[in-house]
Amino acid sequence: MTRDFPENFIWGSATASYQVEGAAHEDGKGPSVWNEFEKRPSAIIDNCTGDVSCDQYHQYKKDVAIMRDIGFDVYRFSLAWSRIFPEGTGAMNPKGIDYYKRLCDELLANGIEPYITFYHWDLPQALQDKCGGWQSRDCAKYFADYVEKTTVALEGRCKNFFTVNEFLGCTDQGYFNGVCAPGIKLTKKGRNQVRHNMLLAHGMGLQVLRDVMPQARVGIAENPVFMTPVLDTPEHVDAAKRAFREINGHFITAIMEGGYPDSYLEAEGGDAPEVKDGDFKLISAPMDFLGLNIYYGRLVRFAPELEKKYEIFFDDAATEWTDCNGMFQPAAIYWGSRIVNELWSPKEIIISENGTSNMDRPAADGEVYDVFRIKYLRSYLESMSRAIRDGVPITGYLHWSFLDNLEWRSGYRRRFGLTFVNYRTQERIPKLSAKFFKELIRTGRIA
Ligand code: BGC
Fold first, then answer.
1. Which amino acid residue places its CA nearest to atom 10 of ligand 1?
2. d(CA 181, CA 34)
3. What span, in angstroms and rounded, lies between the C-alpha atoms of 224 and 62?
4. What is the Cα–Cα distance from 259 to 250, expressed in whole angstroms?
5. In sequence order, what DSSP letters do the residues of 257-282 get, joined into one string?
6. Among 267, 315, 388, 408, which residue has the least CB neighbours within 10 Å?
7. Three-state SS annotation for 116-176
8. Catalytic residues
9. Residue 126, exposed/middle/buried by CB under 10 A (0-12, 13-18, 19+)?
10. What is the dihedral of CA 54, 292, 11, 361, to 10 degrees?
11. How far is the CA of 70 from the centre of ligand 1 (A)?
């Protein structure tokens, strides 16, 4: 039978430190902005915290054994910066870095390549207090320092790195509408500077990685607003491309093109961020891969009657389907990756996140029959396979997520995992989707 994916395709899954580690105040770890933010009443549904979560800090061996059984090639996880540098800068916490060494060693011993994300939104609270966190350019310097020292301390255990995960979840949600940590509401000008400072952190982090580990492979994991043309005709496809480039002007377009597009600068006017000489040389330095977190996309039509000549609208049909995260638009993975490829021809694209949530529960026989997730996977993977057939250089797919975990301000209700977690006992139950994923990896086919 023919395969849907090449032999050397990379399969795995992703998590983030705050969402899975627990041990929030153990072994010298400093608090992160999320450990502070969660104390605010109702900041997180049910007022839950990341204190224990899936306890991966202690359960990692059990987790790696499940990953091995599924057959993952890689595991993407993020480092808790404040576990390694409790103050964000200064002295390294030996117990903190030791944990990540042990995790990498366990993965490697089981044939799984660690893919590290340096920043998945859990800034050390000490840096928020010291300099206003990402409001200050200094934060990018502290980030680069953390990246450098951590990479050296890991002594070559990891070779694949994502500098930053999804800018927006930190910049706009953390510092503009305040719904995420650190829960600040800046003006547009302030927000735009935060956005720029984070781009700079990516650029500076990338540069130090090149310096200290020339053989490292480095990229980002970004979730731009993806666009799906209403029809596959040249005028609608072209409209979707223009819309995509402009709407994402402040992050992915700026990185890939080495500057903010005119449309962004015009729209922001006097609120545009301050950019220093040399910033964009760092920010747009070549990456080894581009990680795209693809969940859904907006629809776009060619609209000759409008000034921009395109109209973006929400895909109502995308909300019909899952009861939790409510977004089902498989075409996003095809169009998202194809448009990125046509615009900027990245060397390699990794789907660094894709997945869905529900209120999964074990059935009477103890199994978790998450058939909706299998339906989701089939549809999205067909769409990814189509992109590969059309020449889009997608080399890997990392499912979000390996485990049910703390879904930020949505708490523990939304379950995104291939593996069910009983938060009371820390028992793990690989769901039916984990078995589907295992077959997919074994055969290279969407069954
Ligand atoms: C984030 C994850 C999050 C997932 C599901 C992504 O945007 O990187 O941390 O859990 O979406 O909402």
1. 407
2. 5
3. 34
4. 9
5. HTS--HHHHHHHGGGPPP--TTHHHH
6. 267
7. EEEECCCCEHHHHHHHCHHHCCHHHHHHHHHHHHHHHHCCCCCCEEEEEECCHHHHHHHHC
8. 166, 353
9. buried
10. 40
11. 22
Please write the tens of the pLDDT for every residue from 191-216: 999 999 999 999 999 999 999 999 99
Phi, psi of 125 (to 5 degrees): -60, -35
271 Cβ neighbours under 8 A, 6+ residues apart: 187, 188, 189, 192
| Residue labelled with tokens 């069954």 | 447
CB-based contacts of 322, cutoff 8 Å, min separation 6: 328, 356, 357, 358, 372, 376
Each residue's pLDDT tens digit, 259-273? 999 999 999 999 999
Find the residues whose C-beta lies inside 6 A of ligand 1.
Answer: 16, 165-166, 169, 223, 293, 353, 400, 407, 416
pLDDT in tens, 281-329: 999 999 999 999 999 999 999 999 999 999 999 877 666 555 555 688 9
Tokens at residue 285, please?
């330095």
Q: What confidence score (pLDDT) does residue 373 get?
A: 95
